[in-house]
Amino acid sequence: MTSDSIAAVRVSPRAQFVLADNPTMMTLDGTNTWILREPTGSRSVVVDPGPNFAAHLDAVEEAAGEVALVLYTHHHADHTEAIDEFARRTGAPARAIGPYWCRNAEPLRHREVITVDGLELQILATPGHTMDSMSIVLAQDNALLTGDTILGRGTTVVAHPDGALAEYLHSLEVIRELVVSGIDRLFPAHGPVVDDALAVVDFYREHRQQRLEQVRRSVAEGRTTAREVVEHVYADVGQHLWPAAELSVEAQLLYLRKHG
Predict the structure, then answer these.
(1) Cα 21 from chain centroid?
(2) For residue 183, what pLDDT is reported?
(3) What is the Cα Rg of the chain in Å?
(4) What does the pLDDT average to over 98-113?
(5) Looking at domain 3-208, which of 2.160.20.80, 3.60.15.10, 3.20.20.140, 3.10.20.340 is its CATH number?
(6) Cβ contacts of residue 163 below 8 Å, gap of 6+?
(7) How do residues 243-259 score in pLDDT, each as one tens digit?
(8) Does residue 99 have a cis peptide bond before it, meaning omega lies within 30 degrees of 0?
(9) Is the dihedral of CA 173, 165, 247, 98 positive or negative?
(10) Which of 38, 67, 84, 135 could bridge to 92 as Cys pair (CB 3.0-4.6 Å)?
(11) 3-state secondary structure of 93
(12) Which segments of the chain does DSSP mark as H helices, in order?
């Protein structure tokens, strides 16, 4: 695939994305690399350059123009693999919650506001999917970039030890407060844009509580290991998904040990 066949998709006055050709069971259609720029601005902010595919990075550069800053929503490789190559190409500093994923810049701070040529972004720490996960408030477009915290389709994985359920549930509450206050669209790192933000956030909250209750009942019935719980709770799910489900159940078991 060449950059000529990869087109950026505009979804708001300030946001467009380039879809990486890395579809998997976990990445859905692939990684959305977001390009944010004020309509009157000359420089852009790129979020999650993604895999180190030359054609993808060419397309991102073409759409982004001059890049002032690169942001990473979390450390998973489908978001960060191209970190050094993209820094070499653009010369732009890179920032993330985790210092290892920063290049020539300081780590991001919760509630920090970043301004580039009139574009205003607020960083929101939303741990849970991973402990370094963050979201980005694009209030000028009534939108929130959610990384992998909320996907455009299906639900995300909260897998022990990389993720933690208590933190994830709290992050969903933080996001819901934003949505109730006026954010009405979600721009995820995988899958399509979410236009009914409140409905999807509430679905995520209810889904997590339902799964947690299923695990709670399974433990009460005498199942003690994550594998045993998966075989019962995820009996209707393809066994190729069970390894990921086991990690998710480990996170739920840890939550139940701490919170009941």
Answers:
(1) 17
(2) 98
(3) 19
(4) 98
(5) 3.60.15.10
(6) 127, 128, 129, 130, 131, 157, 251
(7) 989 999 999 999 999 99
(8) no
(9) positive
(10) 67
(11) coil
(12) 54-64, 77-80, 83-90, 165-180, 197-220, 226-233, 242-259
Which H or E run includes 32? strand 32-36
Token reading at 18: 């380039």
- The residue written with tokens 């995520």 in the block is 204
Per-residue pLDDT tens for 164-199? 999 999 999 999 999 999 999 999 999 999 999 999
Residue 260: pLDDT band (50, 70, 90) is confident
Q: Sheet containing 9-10: which strands, arranged edge to edge?
A: 9-10, 15-19, 32-36, 43-47, 66-71, 94-95
Domain residue limits, the chain: 3-208
Average pLDDT, the chain: 96
**Alpha-carbon distances of 181 from 123, 174, 175, rounded to whole Å:** 16, 11, 10
- Lookup: tokens for 76: 């998973």
What would the two tokens of residue 55 be? Answer: 């054609």
Residue 237 has pLDDT above 90, yes or no: no
